[in-house]
Amino acid sequence: MPNFQLMRRKFQTAGMTHAIFLSLPITLFAVFYVYPIVSTFNLSLHSWDGFSPTPKYVGLRNYVVLLHQSRFYHAVLNNISWLVFLLLGPTSLGLLLAALLDRGMKGESVFRVLFFLPFTIPAVAVAAIWRWMYEPTSGLLTTILQSVGLGGLAQNWLGDPSIVNFALMGSMLWWTTGFAFLVFFAGLRNIPVEYIEAARIEGATPWQVFWKVSFPLLWPSTIVVLGMAAVDAMRLFDIVWAMTNGGPAYASEVLATQMYDTAFGRFEMGRASAISVYLLVIAGLIIMPYIHQLAKRVQDAEAE
């Protein structure tokens, strides 16, 4: 009996210790994650200009109004377009660069720095660089086209609603490919050399070695890159706002820029909060099942 009481006392002490150590992260999670979400949802049920002492309760009206605005649907479609682009563009180019550099090119260290360097530049600086490059009269891109006799192809890159999103995606490709490159390159270098050598001994071509051996073993790296790309597509704000402010005529607007403009440009805090709730729901519906499926594939591959 004394032994049982001693064991129970030890378990209680261990439980108290665990509770003490868990209290800090749980408190931080509640304060910085749970509370802002609950507060934002509560604000979305009100009409408030940010200055009035008491917000006016309007229920779900902010959500209903947004569902009747074409501007809101256009922003959602832009986010989806960015999702597709970021999943395919920087990911594919980063994988290609990593595969080429993994073959032992001369000056490998220099190329590694050059490929990753753009990703270290802040978004506002990237926006400033590419706004200069896209300047319609004296920008670098227009100057290059004119110098090779293709001046007729020069466009108002950031002022034409039909091409502004493609121009933004070009700058985003230059900026974010370095991250995908670094993750894939590290993944390729972590593949056991014995697997590669065994495939070469069997007579596999370089393409077969990559596609049949290296690429399947890159699933952990792929999950990281694609997961970050999906998150970036949903929270996209800085480079769009810094380059176009969501224009021209809302052509490049995404949900985050619309939320910012609604809150601090129109002072409709409740409606801006409703946009953020929609963004959270859309991001959850898109990202979580995707990451779950990719993680399941990795577990299945490791089990084999």
TrEMBL record:
Protein topology in the membrane: Multi-pass membrane protein
Main location (coarse class): membrane
Pfam families, alphabetized: BPD_transp_1
Keywords, comma-separated and alphabetical: Cell membrane, Membrane, Transmembrane, Transmembrane helix, Transport
GO biological process: transmembrane transport
Alphabetical list of SUPFAM superfamilies matching this protein: MetI-like
Transmembrane recorded as keyword: yes
Full protein name: Sugar ABC transporter permease
